[in-house]
Each structure stands twice: as structure tokens, then as C-alpha cells.
Write a structure and sequence with these properties.
- This protein is of the alpha/beta class and 364 residues long.
- It contains 16 helices and 13 strands.
- Helices cover 47% and strands 15% of the residues.
- α4 links the parallel β4 and β5.
- The chain starts with a strand and ends with a helix.
Length: 364
């Protein structure tokens, strides 16, 4: 039997882990997965509801860490994760993405000489001001097995000297999730009716990155850009973003409907039926493509360069509200049926590739 500790703490990680954990469970007694939830996303709508909807087993450990600075959170996570690893003695520690939870899990494991596997390795924004960029670079250089989603990610790692059998291009586990849960969302979600939304009749917005939320001027520009568009904007708001709006005393324009964070199935429905998605989230950029919805990225750069090249994603100037308004209209008028069908994210079997690689490494 192989014992794997999975470290998760934020919504995108819940989604990625859901399909991999499902595949672990299908292997029966040959795999024991122990789930450690750091608590990085800690309110009910941002954590508990995701576990219920995605069918993720209740975490074996909930560390209850969240709400502090990056340094505070990462340090506390390392300490508590280390205690779990010493108790459980796993064969692998599996981490996802680029959050503080990702880096803390990788660091704690490496100090104890426990093998680290990183899902969604090799992504680069080349913006070292982003905490996520630091997290992903350090995790990749720590990891013993790196699972990349795209050719571009493989190339990024090669430029940093990370090559060989420890690097595997497996596709994107979020594509697995989009395929698996998309139809369930169509059957079960009632969010469009509850919000009185018509298909393709609104812009869906998500904003949570520090570069936007901690900068009063940029946050005001985003609000002004949405207002200038005249479109109805539905914004499931991250608690941290809501707090920043209060701290800066920024008013919400009348065409923006702010709602609490929603569960995964409701979010999928909001994404699928939006006319445009405006986001600074890496995961939501991909989900927009998976659901064939044009995306406006509220950042100066993106890790998902293939989506920009293919016309599915458009970067915008977050210092100019007129540019945001104009680019929203450009995206809405985009004829998605004329855009290329990209096959760079795999075939929906990425989770299986991850699990088989971990089992094979253990067997060898």
C-alpha cells in the first residue's frame, strides 16, 4: 500500500484534488490518501460546500490556519504540517497549484526527506511581485515529481534546468473536473433563477489577487471600468476583497451585483452562461475556456499564454477604466465559434495519469 498526504487549502485546490482523490479511491486498498486542509479558505461558502458538492472525503486533519499575512500563514502551516507528517510517515506529499498551502506542504516534506509531487507545475507569470509566482517557483525546485498541464509549462521548467523523468506532462486536472461536474451543475444548480439571470445576459467577475485588491487605485479602476461598460456584472466576492472595499471606502456601482462566494456547481453555471468572464484568477481563466466563454483577464500577464494566443483570453490594462470597458465589449462581441479548439490541456484523463505515475514510482 502507498500512503499519500494531500495538502489543500484554497478553492482551486479543492477542485483539482476532487478528481485525483476520486481516482485514488477507485484504486481501493492499494492507496491510502490522507487529506490535510490548512484552512487557508476557511468560511463555509469557500470550503465546506465545495467538499460536499465535489464529493471530497472529510479532511483527516483541519489545521485551521487562515486570515494572517503570507508569512504568518506559511510559517504556521509548515509547523502544523510537519507534525502531521511526523505522525503519518507518508510515501508522498501531494501539493497543488501556487498558494501558501502549496509551498508550506512542499517545504515541510522536503525538510523531512519525504518525496513531494506537484500538480500544475511549470506555470510562470514572470512577475516576481506576485506571491503565487514565488510559491510556484520554489515548489517546482523542491518537488521530486512535477506534473505539468501544458507544453509551455514543460518549456518553462527546462529553461530552469528541471528536466528528465521527474517531469511529466499529464494535462490539466481542472479539465477533468470541468467534464465530470459540468453536467451535474446543469442538473442541480438553480443560481440563474435565484439571481434572475438570462443566458449570456451578464458579465461574471472574480477579483481576489493582492496586486488588484491591495491597491486602492487599481481596485477603483476595476469598479469604474465595470460601471462604464453598462453591462450587468455579477460578482461573487471573496471575503478579502470585500474587506478591502470597506477599508478603502469604495462604493459599488449600481450595475454590479455583489453576491457571497458560491459553491462549485453554482460557479460552473455562472461561468457557462456568462457572456464574458472578467477575472484575475488563473483557474477561472481556464474554466472560461473549458466552457467556451471569452475571458478578460484583469492582470498585466497570465500563465495561460496559449489562451491569449488562441484568442480565448484577453489581457487588459488595469490602470484605465476606459480600456476595461472597451475590452469587455470586444470580448462580448467575440465570435467564439470561429476561435481555435485547443487540445493543450489533455483529454480529461489527467487525474489517472497522476495516480498511475505515483503508484509506479512507489513500485520502482
Amino acid at each position: 500500500m502507498i500512503k499519500i498526504i494531500t495538502i489543500i487549502g484554497a478553492r482551486p485546490q479543492f477542485i483539482k484534488a476532487a478528481v485525483v482523490s476520486k481516482t485514488f479511491r477507485e484504486r481501493g486498498s492499494s492507496v491510502r490518501e490522507i487529506i490535510v486542509h490548512t484552512g487557508q479558505h476557511y468560511d463555509t461558502n469557500m470550503s465546506d460546500v465545495f467538499f460536499a458538492e465535489l464529493g471530497i472525503p472529510k479532511p483527516d486533519y483541519h489545521l485551521g490556519i487562515g486570515g494572517g499575512t503570507h508569512g504568518q500563514n506559511t510559517g504556521r502551516m509548515i509547523e502544523k504540517i510537519e507534525a502531521v507528517l511526523l505522525r503519518e510517515q507518508p510515501d508522498w506529499v501531494l501539493v497543488y497549484g501556487d498558494t501558501d498551502s502549496t509551498l508550506a506542504g512542499a517545504l515541510a516534506a522536503s525538510k523531512l526527506h519525504i518525496a513531494v509531487a506537484h500538480v500544475e507545475a511549470g506555470l510562470r507569470s514572470f512577475n516576481r511581485r506576485m506571491p503565487e509566482e514565488i510559491n510556484r517557483v520554489l515548489t517546482d525546485h523542491i518537488a521530486d515529481l512535477l506534473f505539468t498541464p501544458t507544453h509551455a509549462a514543460m518549456a518553462n521548467l527546462a529553461k530552469e534546468g528541471i528536466t528528465g523523468n521527474r517531469v511529466r506532462q499529464v494535462g490539466d486536472v481542472m479539465y477533468d473536473a470541468a467534464l465530470y461536474y459540468g453536467e451535474k451543475a446543469a442538473r442541480c444548480s438553480r443560481i440563474l433563477t435565484a439571481l434572475n439571470l438570462s443566458d449570456k445576459g451578464y458579465v461574471l467577475a472574480t477579483v481576489h489577487r493582492a496586486e488588484n485588491t491591495d491597491d486602492q487605485q487599481r481596485l477603483q479602476v476595476i469598479l469604474n471600468g465595470f460601471a462604464a461598460s453598462g453591462r450587468r456584472v455579477v460578482w461573487p466576492m471573496h471575503p478579502r476583497t470585500r474587506q478591502r472595499l470597506e477599508d478603502f471606502a469604495l462604493a459599488i456601482p449600481g450595475n454590479i451585483s455583489v453576491i457571497d462566494p458560491v459553491g462549485y456547481l453554482d460557479m460552473v453555471m455562472l461561468e457557462r452562461q456568462a457572456a464574458v468572464i472578467a477575472t484575475d484568477s488563473g483557474g477561472v481563466q481556464k474554466e472560461a475556456f473549458f466552457h467556451r466563454v471569452p475571458c478578460l483577464t484583469l492582470r498585466d500577464e497570465t500563465e495561460w499564454v496559449e489562451l491569449v494566443a488562441g484568442g480565448w483570453n484577453r489581457l487588459t490594462d488595469v490602470t484605465n477604466p476606459k480600456t476595461i470597458s472597451r475590452d469587455l465589449l470586444v470580448c462580448e462581441q467575440c465570435a467564439v465559434e470561429t476561435l481555435p479548439v485547443l487540445d493543450c490541456y489533455g483529454r480529461g484523463d489527467s487525474a489517472l495519469s497522476v495516480v498511475e505515475a505515483l503508484l509506479k514510482e512507489k513500485a520502482e
